[in-house]
User: Fold this.
Amino acid sequence: MKYVDESRSDVRGPPDDIYNRCATTNSYPSNAEALIREKEAARDHLARLEATLAMLEAERSRLQGILAKYDVILHPIRHIPSEIMQKIFSSCIERSNIMISAERFPRTSLNPSQVPWVLGHVCRTWRALALSTPNIWSSVSLVIRRRLEDSNEKHVSSHLLRLGLQLDRSEDHPLDVSLYLDREQSFHPWTVLLCSRSQQWRYLRLEGDSRGFRPISRIQHFLPALENLELSIASYYSQADIDWLEQAPRLKSLSLTTIPSTKLPFAQIKNFRWREDFNSSSSFSYSSFVSSKLWPMLRSLSGVEACSLEFVKESQPYASSDLANLHYKRLRKLELMSSSSRQVDVQCLLAKFTAPRLTHLFISSKLTEVNVLVDFVGRSACKLTNLVIYSAESVTSNNFARILSVLPELTHLEFGFPTTDDHLFVLSTTPVVVPRLETLCIYSYPGCKSSYSDDVWLNTLEFRASEQLISLRVKGLMLS
Assistant:
């Protein structure tokens, strides 16, 4: 402001009376010489100000340029340690979780406009860092189809070169491999190159026609690092013949959509997921499939700790009385789901299960026979801490109370079925059911409307909170 005040001139302008008279008449002012001198002084001062403004504008532009250079030099990303940047790079890579449904096949890892390739296009530092980070090159995804571009020699050779670069840059890091084959491809060069590194495969996802996997059989006995296997085969059960996966000493996680005719090391599996393929078998052969393939496979999972079963077909074959009971000594997490628009009743499977160490139970299907669930908990003598129930069928408040009455250790409860005030009253009665409950989630099942009131819901929360505080005070007195 001081600089602005100093820039002001002493020129005050013509007196108002002279200006008003000359503005309305043609008379010439008597002191014209003095007014001319003041006008020149004002013009000179204006010229000096315009020159000053131009100089200041140029100085502002210069300083803006300097600040922009400082911003480049002192950008926060330059201060990030290389180890942190490598973790950021790694987070950009798609990683698979075998116990979580992945409907979309991973995009090809050979696209030069996607990560990790684009990370080397930013600058020399990032390129050097990307090339020195093997794990970002360790996720390989290939889609091989019998189409014109995949038979084009130039297309095949360019992608073969890029695949070779990716494998070289992954060095000795374990590989996560996703491979889609639509039919038998003989010995496709991409497959041959990929199989040459099969000793590094840690995760393997195979999709497509089972006939396309036959050329890969030469890797038998060369899967020492394989820990996770996912097979999604578009073929009839009797045609899915894969005979090269028997020797995988470190295999712990397995996901299937059908059961191939192969010897898999089921006894060593700890995490198992089976998602039924609706088009994989005809109705007349399905019952025999359950008894001859599905059930023997489930009986072979003697060491399983987490099991997820997802069905789409009708329920009758699942509850057949001649099926042997399943006893899982180590099972801690069990998921029984129905993915069809008309829910399949899979709870009857519980009548065949015994799991004394089970702590997490997830049911997403019809829930019509509460006795099955109550009997399962009693028969297993398990201490469930997490229970999730999603059902389009209404569960009466009395049945809801019966379920909770056998779960004194429950800390996490989620349910998604038509809920009424009576269901909430169950949670706010004395003696308190599920006294250790810490998390309560209520969801509306798609297409089903709940009819509980907000007041009852808030009263339930207030009651549970007060009971929890009372329990804490009692425990405090007991400890003292």
Summary: The longest strand covers residues 201-208.
